[in-house]
């Protein structure tokens, strides 16, 4: 089994703050999709923060040619997104969480749009972690702490509880997230966490200051084989 996936996050379409940074987010998105197509990748996982609710229709229409999955971020609305993307979930759910079985791997998609993982979703997660497969978690907010000012201010509210749950299983766990608008790799116990740069604008990974950078944007390529996960970054200059 060899699978190649494009992981894109934090496009922030049509938001005034994004425009104020001199970013044409729709143009960035089209640049990324063209690159993905040129690389003959047909699967996309979006890591959250689509942007203004009014941009959701355009966003999902742009993805019709791809196999897609999504984890919601704090700029996303469950009610709005599920008008366009609801084939993964039970109709009784009020949060977008679900799984995919992928050969030797189990993908778990979590919803952190409320800036925390609620008790119902936590209970569901505990059950889904009962597997012999390698676990890959897609969540907008990072779970492992990072020495950056943005982490101190905008972290997932109950991440320590989630980390404890993950530490208590023996499986190898890989986490892919966004939210912080920079690239980072962290390893703790059985967890390897990748944070991915934004497809809109970046935030410098500084310990005591939140400083924006509008010079680059990009996405991550994830490759799965029987024995390992490999990943590399694709970056573009804004101008």
Keywords:
239 residues; alpha/beta; Purple Acid Phosphatase, chain A, domain 2; six-stranded mixed β-sheet; five-stranded mixed β-sheet; 13 strands; 23% helix; globular
Helices and strands in order:
Blueprint: E1 3-8, H1 16-20, H2 25-38, E2 43-46, H3 56-61, E3 67-70, H4 78-81, E4 98-102, E5 105-109, H5 119-128, E6 134-138, H6 149-154, H7 159-167, E7 173-177, E8 184-188, E9 191-195, E10 202-203, E11 212-213, E12 216-224, E13 229-237
Parallel strand pairs: 1-2, 2-3, 5-6, 6-7, 7-9
Antiparallel strand pairs: 1-12, 4-5, 8-9, 10-11, 12-13
- By CATH, the superfamily comes out as Metallo-dependent phosphatases
CATH class group: Alpha Beta
Q: What is the overall shape?
A: globular
Number of domains: 1
- CATH-defined architecture: 4-Layer Sandwich
Strand order of the biggest β-sheet: 4-5-6-7-9-8
User: Poorly predicted ranges (pLDDT <50, ≥5 residues)?
Assistant: none
Tally of contiguous helical segments: 7
Task: Kindly report the average pLDDT value.
Answer: 95
Structural class: alpha/beta
Quote the beta fraction: 25-35%
Walk me through this protein's architecture.
- With 239 residues, the protein is α/β, with parallel strands linked by helices.
- The protein has a single domain, classed as Metallo-dependent phosphatases (Purple Acid Phosphatase, chain A, domain 2), CATH 3.60.21.10.
- It has helices at residues 16-20, 25-38, 56-61, 78-81, 119-128, 149-154, 159-167, and strands at residues 3-8, 43-46, 67-70, 98-102, 105-109, 134-138, 173-177, 184-188, 191-195, 202-203, 212-213, 216-224, 229-237.
- The strands form 3 sheets. It has a 6-stranded mixed sheet, with no helix packed on it.
- The protein is globular and about 45 Å long.
């Amino acid at each position: 089994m060899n699978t190649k996936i494009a992981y894109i996050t934090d496009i922030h379409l049509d938001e005034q703050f994004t425009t104020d940074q001199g970013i044409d987010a729709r143009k960035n998105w089209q640049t990324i999709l063209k690159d993905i197509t040129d690389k003959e990748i047909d699967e996309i996982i979006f890591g959250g923060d689509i942007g203004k609710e009014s941009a959701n229709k355009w966003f999902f229409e742009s993805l019709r040619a791809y196999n897609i999955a999504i984890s919601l971020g704090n700029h996303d609305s469950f009610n709005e997104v599920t008008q366009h993307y609801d084939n993964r979930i039970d109709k009784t759910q009020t949060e977008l969480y679900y799984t995919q079985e992928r050969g030797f791997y189990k993908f778990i998609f979590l919803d952190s749009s409320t800036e925390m993982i609620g008790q119902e979703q936590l209970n569901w997660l505990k059950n889904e972690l009962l597997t012999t497969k390698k676990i890959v978690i897609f969540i907008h907010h990072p779970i492992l702490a990072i020495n950056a000012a943005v982490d101190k201010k905008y972290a997932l509210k109950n991440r320590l509880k989630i980390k404890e749950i993950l530490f208590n299983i023996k499986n190898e766990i890989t986490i892919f997230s966004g939210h912080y608008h920079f690239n980072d790799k962290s390893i703790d116990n059985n967890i390897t966490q990748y944070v991915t740069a934004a497809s809109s604008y970046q935030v410098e990974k500084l310990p005591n200051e939140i400083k924006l950078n509008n010079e680059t944007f990009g996405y991550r390529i994830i490759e799965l084989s029987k024995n390992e996960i490999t990943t590399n970054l694709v970056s573009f200059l804004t101008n």
